Amino acid sequence: MIGSDKVGHWNGYESEIRKYDPLIALLDEDTRLMVTQTNILDLIHVDPVTMQRVEALAPAA
Questions:
Q1: Cα–Cα distance measured from residue 38 to residue 61, given in angstroms and rounded to the nearest whole number
Q2: For residues 38 and 30, is the Cβ–Cβ distance under 8 A?
Q3: Fewest CB atoms less than 10 Å from the CB: which of 14, 25, 44, 59?
Q4: Cβ proximity of 47 and 54 under 8 Å
Q5: CB of 4 closer than 8 Å to CB of 17
Q6: For 4-55, what is each residue's pLDDT tens digit?
Q7: What pTM does this model have?
Q8: In the chain, what are the helix, strand and coil shares in percent, each to the nearest 5?
Q9: Alpha carbon 51 to its chain's center
Q10: How far apart are CA 36 and CA 24, in angstroms?
């Protein structure tokens, strides 16, 4: 997951986050999807297909 420390305001966010584009371009497709969307959607419990909130999975025993 890639993010920034921009909290409470968005000025400069795009230029800050775009600095990671060259790194992301080097990743294979599966890894790129995990870094750019899947990891955050899992963290906030949103299904990447439906974009609907889902119940959190129970931790593995």
A1: 23
A2: no
A3: 59
A4: yes
A5: yes
A6: 777 778 888 899 899 999 999 999 999 999 998 888 888 889 988 888 998 8
A7: 0.63
A8: 45, 5, 50
A9: 13
A10: 8
Cα–Cα distance measured from residue 61 to residue 35, given in angstroms and rounded to the nearest whole number? 26
DSSP, collapsed to helix, strand or coil, labels residue 46 as: strand
The DSSP output letter for 22 is H
Beta-bridged to residue 46, according to DSSP, are 53
- Residue 3 and residue 16 in contact, taking contact as beta carbons nearer than 8 Å: no
State whether the Cα torsion 50-51-56-61 is positive or negative.
positive
Instruction: Pull the structure tokens for residue 41.
Output: 């959607």
